[in-house]
Amino acid sequence: MTRGGRKVRLLIGKVGLDGHDRGAKIVARALRDAGFEVIYTGLHQTPEMVVATALQEDVDGIGLSLLSGAHNTIFPKVMKLLAEKNSADIMVFGGGIIPEEDLPRLQEAGIRKIFTPGTTTQEFIDWVKENVQPRRR
Amino acid sequence: MKPKNAGRTAVASSRTRHDWEETTLRKALEKIPERKAAFTTVSSLPIERLYTAQDLKDWDPADRLGFPGEPPFTRGVQPTLYRGRLWTMRQFAGFGTAEDTNRRFHYLLEHGQTGLSVAFDLPTLMGRDSDDPLAEGEVGREGVAIDTLADMEVLFKGIPLDRVSTSMTINAPAAVILAMYLAVAEKQGVPLAKLEGTVQNDILKEYIAQKEWIYPPVPSLRIITDMVAFCTARVPKWNTISISGYHIREAGSTAAQELAFTLADGIGYVQACVEAGQDVDAFAPRFSFFFNSHNDFFEEIAKLRAARRMWCAIMRDRFHARSQRSWMLRTHVQTAGCSLTAQQPYGNVVRVTIQALAAILGGTQSLHTNALDETLALPTEDSARIALRTQQIIAEESGVANTVDPLAGSYFVESLTNRLEQEAWKYIRAIDGMGGIVPAIEQGFPQREIAEASYLYQKQVDQAEKIVVGVNRYTEGDTMKAPLLKIGPEVERGQVDRLLSVRAGRDRERHARALWELEESASGKANLMEAILEAIRAYASVGEICEALKKVFSVYREGRVHL
Fold first, then answer.
1. CATH of the domain at A95
2. Partner residues linked to B366 by β-bridges
3. Mean pLDDT value of segment A88-104
C-alpha cells in the first residue's frame, strides 16, 4: 500500500504473556498480502518492547493483539509510552477477546479501533487503508 | 407365505453402484443439482456423495476394529464403554484467587461434577509470580493465581485429595505445581499412592501451538522424564502427561494435523523416557491424551477412533511395549473453543452439544463442554451450569450411551477413520525423516503447517466458502448478549499482598538452602522432583523455583515466525 510515495509500515505486536498468536499471524499475513509493509514482533512483548520496536522500525501504525483479558492494563500503557516518546501520532488499533463494554475506555486511552471476534480480513484491511497514513518526518 | 417385496429385494441386490448412478441418481441430479461442486470437512478433506461396501473392500474388521477393550482399540478402551460407567464430566474451572476457585469447586462438586479440573492464570502458567512486572494485569484473569504452597492449601480447602481426581492444566511449571499438590496431600495426611489425577505437562505442544514455554525443549524433556520416573515410583495412579491435540487444533490446525502432531509428541515423550532408562510398560500406561472436538461431527468421531488404532500400533510395534495397558489411548476431550462465536452466543450451546456428541460417539473417557460465553470471558455460574447440563442430557436422555461404538461398520465412518489415519501417518513419517519431533519443532515444521491451515480456513470463512452461522450467514438478530464474569483489579492486589506476606513469614534459611539445592540438582543428574518438593515445602514461589531452573537451563526463544 503506497501513500505519498512510500509504503505504509505496520507493526503487529503480541503484548503480555498471552501466547494465542493465531489471530495476530493471520492479521499480519493478510495485511502483508494486501501490500503493506508488516513487521511482527513475536510473542511475550512488554509495552516498552513494542514501543521501542515501533520507533526503531519507524512504523505508521501498530496493531496490538491480546486474548488474555489484560487489555485494560496493557493497551493504555502502550499509549502512554508512545506519548512520552512524542509519537502519539502512530495510529494504534487492537484486537482479541475484548468485551464490548471495555471499548469506550480503550478508545478514551487513544486506541483508534478495536476489532472483535468475527471480523473479516477485508474489514481490517479496509480500515487500515482508510485510516493509517505515512507519518510526516 | 412369501413376503410381498421378495421379488423387489432380489432385483435390488443385483444392482451395482454404477447402475444406481446411471438411473436413479442421474435423474435426481437433473431435477435438483447438488448444492456445491465439492463437499469437504471443516478441515477441507473431500467427502463423497455416498459410501458403500466398495469403499471397505480391502478392510478387515478383525484387524482394523477388533472388539472393545481389545487391540487395536478402535472400538474403545473399555469393554462396556459407557454401560459400565459414564465418561467423567470434568469442567475446567479457575479464576481470581484460590478462595474464589475453591468456592467454585465446592459448587461444581455439589452439582454432580465427578472430577476437578484446575485452570491457572497466565503468570502461573509461565512460571512467574503475581508481582512480576510481566504479570501486571494478568493475575487471576484466565485462571487461578498460584504463587506458593499457601495458595494451594486454600485452593483445596475442604476437599479431601484421596476422594477426588484432579486434573491440572499446567505445562512448563508442571513439576512445580504437582509438587505443590503432593505437599497439600502430605499436610492432609493422604498417602501419595492414593492420589489420582493428571497434569497436562505437555511442553512439546507449547512450542507447536500454545506458546507457553519457559526452557528450551531438551531441558524441558529432562524435567518431564524426572517427573515421570518420580510418579512411577511414588504416585503410581497419577497420569503424568496429557498429550494434547486440543491447543494444536485451537491454533488452527486441521483434524489430521491435530491427530498427527499429537501422536508425534507422544512418540517424543515415550522415546525420551526410554532413553532415560525407564521401562516402557512402567510409565506408558500413565500417559493420557487430550483432543479437541470441533464442528465436523463425523471427522471428529473418525479422528478419535483413528487415534486409538494408531497409538496401539505405535506402542506395540515401534516401542515393543508388552502390556496392553501401554497400547491403550485414553483421552479427555474438550469442545472447540475456537468454534464458538461472539455473535449470537446462545447458538454456541448447540455447537457444543454437537461437538460433545461427537466426542462421546468417538469413545472419550472424559469431557469438558465449553460455556456459551467463553469467546468473551470466563463462564459465569449460569453458563457453566448449562455446559454441564448439556453433557448430562446427552448421558441420561439421548440413549447414545446404551451401546459401545455404535458407528462401527458404517461405510462412511470407517472410510473416514482410514483416511484420517493415512493423512496422519504421512505427517509422522515426515517428522521421523527430520529426526523426530524436537528437530521438527526447531525447524518450525508443525508450526508452519498449522499457520498455513489456519490462514486457509480464515480465507474460506471470509469468502463464505465455510459457513459460520451468525458470522457470515444468518447474521441478523444479534440482540442476545450473554452476561460476563468480571475479574476486578482487587484480585491482583490481594494476591500480591498474600505473596509478600508468605515471603516475609517463611523460614529464610530453609528457603535459601532449598533453592540452592535445586540448582545443584539441575546442574547434575539427580532426579529434580525431590529438590522441587523441598523448595515447595519451604514456601518457595513458582517464580523463584522457575528462576532457579532458568539459571541452569536457560530460556527458550522462538525462531523466525512463519507468516
1. 3.40.50.280
2. B88, B332
3. 93
Asked whether the beta carbons of residue A69 and residue B211 sit closer than 8 angstroms, the reply is no
Amino acid identity, position B501: S
| Residue A110 domain-assigned (yes or no) | yes
Q: Confirm whether A121 is domain-assigned.
A: yes
In DSSP terms, which residues pair with A96 in a beta bridge? A66
User: Chain B residue closest to A21 (CA)?
Assistant: B251
User: In whole angstroms, what is the distance from residue A29 CA to residue B562 CA?
Assistant: 9
According to DSSP, the residues that pair with B165 across neighbouring strands are B196
* Residue B197, all three cell numbers: 489425577
Provide the grid cell at A93: 488499533
- Cα-Cα-Cα-Cα dihedral sign, residues B314, B316, B321, B326: positive
C-alpha to C-alpha distance for B231 and B270, rounded to whole angstroms: 15
Angstrom distance (rounded) from CA B165 to CA B483: 31
Contacts of B128 in chain A (CB under 8 A): 17
Greatest CA separation found in chain B? 95
Chain B nearest CA to A101, separation (Å): 10
Alpha carbons B91 and B189: distance in angstroms, whole number: 27
How does pLDDT run across A1-22, given as a tens digit for each residue?
565 568 899 999 999 999 999 9
Using a CB–CB cutoff of 8 Å, tell me whether B490 touches chain A: no
Q: Is the peptide bond before B72 cis (omega within 30 degrees of 0)?
A: yes
Question: Would you say A93 and A111 are in contact if contact means Cβ atoms under 8 Å apart?
Answer: yes
Which residues form the domain of B252?
Answer: 61-462
Residue B213 belongs to domain with CATH number: 3.20.20.240
Grid coordinates of B528: 529434580
Q: Using one digit for the tens of pLDDT, what is the confidence trace for B280-321?
A: 999 999 999 999 999 999 999 999 999 999 999 999 999 999
Residue B206 inside a domain? The answer is yes
Question: CA nearest B359: which of B400, B403, B416?
Answer: B400
8-state DSSP, A57 = T
Count Cα atoms within 13 angstroms, Cβ side, for B293. Answer: 30
Burial class (CB in 10 A: 0-12, 13-18, 19+), B190: middle
Q: Name chain B contacts of A99, Cβ cutoff 8 Å.
A: 376-377, 484
Rounded mean pLDDT, B195-216:
97
pLDDT at residue B4 tops 60: no
Of B156, B222, B209, the residue nearest B184 (C-alpha):
B156
Q: Is residue B333 part of a domain?
A: yes
The number of domains in chain B is 1
